[in-house]
Write a structure and sequence with these properties.
The chain is mainly β.
Length: 569
């Protein structure tokens, strides 16, 4: 009976003591927690418990990154061994039908590795904490695992003996341990008072420091090696035939903690994702009917469409003087919301969305004491509604300061000033005029126009994209909050071919990262032909161009013009 491909950690009761064997990496055979507490699917999801490559365990730290053991990524099962193909390291979990294939790996110091899921993920995930200090032997460690539920053993019968291999039922279990030894590099455990012991198998599985009340305080280690006490005589000395374990050791996370946290910050969340596939979508509005429609996208292919509906599920039709000026996450719930502006009153209103339906998870009280849960006005620093009219206009929206809330970029057509409203949900936190590289306020007017904001240079900061209506030049201001750190003109595919100059009837409608390379891609629309084209970008230059196609969505409506228009993102 082969245990290859079975994930997790073994806790068993008892186990014969035959002379301790040398510790060995768990490799790609993982074993479960015998006599441990069953872990519900809800708890597994809460703590991001996943399977890596069908044989190792791991923890989904956030939506993009999985923490596991380095030797789980090696084709020979050894720490820092030759890397296995990423296609062999598929990520799955009992709590979702989704699966994901990593697009990148980061092999860290010791027996640690991270796998980046890119756009193909398991859905929304909780942020897992990393324990902030070195573990000591007075603390409690909770281990999680699935797989083996009994060690191998031999049955003596009257006429023969029967060797029974280790058994797995595939159920996640947990157990609590007091470390027998701990340092800034390793955490070692031995059988606890109940006779439970982690076994060779939860390669990459997490060790959580646990408070006296049972609260998990953060991941302090990743399961690495175990020492078998013995094997069924005459059988291979593998975990399939192990009869017991004397101790197991995890690699301590503290030495890699700052690196892991920095990498986790490099976790793109798809802007304008309305169907929870972690891929950006395109928002359209019909100026005649007032309909708002979402094109669900996969790269440059439209894979579906949906009309925006109200809280009751009915199509909602909104026309002038209201218009859509942006769509970003304004309440930090990992869902894209829609920002509207009233050209007559100067009012701004956020539709807090749950997919393509109004009804996000947010509540606020207005100054008159009424409760609004899904359509929220913008409040100023003093908590009162704010109304702004010409010559100011909303030019873009994005998270400019990295606090998770979308901020609003304004431009003054008379003075050329660009101002950012740094937001805390629907309330202005503070405001700042954009300053140049020398920290001097910068004023830019027509023919330059702000057309979008997104991260254009992979530094995890939102930048500002401008277009010159006279010359056709597109220029990026690389930003650090409200200050310019550099500027670059967008160039053709062959960088040395020069600036990409494009004018009417083409116009830039939005920018989003459609291919997952962490650089915003530029969406253009042709007002004459109705063609929508994506410029897939590298930093500062075009990688390739593609016309948006409808072939995975029935094949109709490839070229769309007035009264439909793509809304700014």
């Amino acid at each position: 009976m082969s245990l290859a491909g079975i994930a997790a950690l073994l806790i068993v009761s008892g186990g014969a003591s035959v002379g301790a064997q040398a510790e060995e990496p768990i490799g790609q055979v993982q074993q479960g927690l015998v006599a441990g507490s069953w872990v519900s699917l809800e708890t597994q999801k809460d703590y991001g418990l996943v399977t890596v490559g069908g044989g190792c365990s791991g923890t989904l730290l956030n939506r993009s990154w999985v923490l596991t053991a380095d030797h789980c990524l090696a084709s020979d099962g050894k720490i820092k061994g030759p890397a296995a193909p990423l296609g062999n390291l598929g990520i799955s979990a009992a709590w979702t039908s989704r699966t994901a294939t990593p697009t990148m790996s980061v092999r860290l110091w010791g027996d640690f590795a991270l796998l980046f899921l890119g756009h193909g993920d398991l859905g929304r995930a909780n942020l897992q904490l990393l324990y902030h200090d070195v573990v000591d032997t007075s603390q409690t460690i909770t281990k999680f695992g699935r797989g083996i539920s009994a060690f191998a053993y031999t049955i003596s019968l009257p006429l023969f003996t029967l060797d029974v291999p280790a058994f797995s039922d595939g159920v996640y279990r947990s157990g609590a341990f007091a470390p027998s030894s701990a340092s800034d590099q390793f955490i070692t455990v031995v059988p606890n008072a109940s006779g439970q012991i982690p076994n060779g198998g939860d390669s990459g599985g997490p060790d959580f420091v646990t408070a006296p009340d049972g609260t998990l305080l953060g991941i302090a280690g990743v399961q690495s090696t175990c020492a078998a006490t013995g094997y069924v005589p005459g059988r291979p000395q593998t975990w399939t035939w192990a009869t017991g374990v004397s101790q197991c050791t995890s690699a301590a996370t503290i030495g890699n903690r700052s690196t892991i946290l920095e990498i986790m910050r490099n976790s793109p969340v798809a802007s304008n994702d309305f169907n929870d596939d972690n891929l950006p979508d395109i928002v359209w509005h019909n100026s005649q009917t007032g309909e708002t429609q979402i094109w669900f996208m996969d790269n440059s292919s439209r894979i579906g469409r949906a009309t925006v509906v109200d809280e009751a599920g009915n199509p909602i039709l909104i026309g002038l003087p209201w218009r859509i000026v942006a769509s970003r996450d304004f309440n930090r719930d990992d869902r894209t919301d829609i920002l509207w502006y009233n050209e007559s009153t100067g009012e701004l209103q956020i539709w807090l969305m749950n997919g393509w339906q109004i009804g996000g998870h947010f509540q606020t009280w207005l100054t008159d004491g009424s409760l609004v849960s899904s359509r929220v006005p913008i409040f100023n620093e003093n908590g009162t509604r704010t109304f702004i009219g010409p010559p100011w206009r909303v030019a873009a929206a994005n998270d400019m300061d990295g606090n998770g809330y979308a901020d609003i970029v304004w431009h003054n057509a008379s003075t050329g000033e660009t101002q950012i409203w740094f937001m805390n949900g629907s309330r202005i936190w503070w405001r700042s005029t954009v300053r140049d590289e020398n920290n001097v306020p910068i004023f830019v007017g027509y023919p330059w126009t702000i057309v979008a904001s997104d991260d254009m240079n992979q530094d995890r900061r939102a930048d500002i994209v401008w277009h010159n209506d006279a010359s056709g030049e597109t220029q990026v201001w690389y930003m650090n909050s409200s200050r310019i750190t550099g500027r670059q003109t967008v160039r053709w595919e062959n960088y040395y071919a020069g600036a990409a100059l494009v004018g009417w009837p083409w116009r830039i409608t939005s920018v989003n990262d459609f291919d997952g390379n962490r650089v915003g891609d530029i969406v253009w629309h042709n007002a004459s032909t109705g063609e929508t084209q994506v410029w897939f970008m590298n930093v500062g230059s075009i990688l390739r161009r593609a016309t948006v196609d409808p072939w995975r969505d029935g094949g109709d409506a490839q070229f769309v013009g007035e009264p439909w228009r793509i809304m700014p993102h």
